Amino acid sequence: MAGKFEYSLGINELKSKDYRLWQSLVGEFLGNLILNFFACGACTQPEDGTFKALAFGLGVFMAITVVGHLSGGHVNPAVTLGMLVAGRVSLLRAILYIIFQCLGSIAGTAAIRVFILNNIKCIYQKLLTFCFLFHQTLIDEVYYNGLGHTSLAPNITELQGVGIEFFLGLVLVLTVFGACDANKPGSVENYLLSHRSHVEILPKYLDSRYIAPLAIGMAVTLGHLGTIRYTGASMNPARTVGTAFATNNWDSHWVYWVGPVLGGIAAALIYTQILEKPAAKVSEVSDKYGTHADEREMRKLESGRDYA
């Protein structure tokens, strides 16, 4: 059965501390700052696309691991809008997430650009004039390498770019939904149903909280390996906002919003309407608990007879 969507404006989240809205916004800010600082920093180094793909994948893994428990670890407007369409977040939270994601990306990329200035005196002078983001002299323009700013290859049209970024956003958000689906086989809840007596194994099993960030990070790495040469493999509009702001290059910028966002929305609809496993009903859960308990008791009785 297709999932049912429940939407909320989220005005009540501003008033109640239970929703931890402001902490979540700080989490999204920090997540994008971490991603752009390290991943875009890697792009200043004269390495090949594989190196950059691993940098972005590991950056996403680290960012989600750090802030995932706080905000859900969206770290990407395409993911946030996918969650909004699926009814997983309120409208207000989605809008604020996107704003703070972009601010975090700008801060992370700006920090990298400031740190590779020629000298500290130059930093001080640029800060005083509030134009350090656009006019500083860098150590080496070749080494600087555009801070990893995403741009279309000469033979790629904007429409082709949208198509590539669409599929990148689609795969990424499908991975997010799949990795975070509590109802699929292998989730903690399903483990409890089938291994209720093996409590001592549960802490090891709970390490699956690291599997979701790893899976999402690997999806980002895969996207970069496949398409970094053609569009820069943004997959993340906020990440491109950060580098566009720091380099003052807004050419074809709309491509990096329209493509991933449409892909994320399509992924949300596909997963929730087709791929998502329905949540087990309370009666079904009770039956499973009872069935497993009866099976264990029968095994105990049978083993007792063997030694009688």
UniProtKB/TrEMBL annotation:
Main subcellular localisation: membrane
Pfam family, one: MIP
Keywords from the UniProt entry: Cell membrane, Membrane, Transmembrane, Transmembrane helix, Transport
GO cellular component annotations of the record: plasma membrane
One term of GO molecular function: channel activity
Bilayer-spanning residue ranges: 20-39, 51-71, 91-116, 210-230, 254-271
Signal peptide: none
Cellular location(s): Cell membrane
Entry membrane topology: Multi-pass membrane protein
Cross-referenced Gene3D superfamilies: Glycerol uptake facilitator protein (1.20.1080.10)
Protein family (similarity comment): Belongs to the MIP/aquaporin (TC 1.A.8) family.
Protein name as catalogued: Aquaporin
Originating species: Glossina palpalis gambiensis
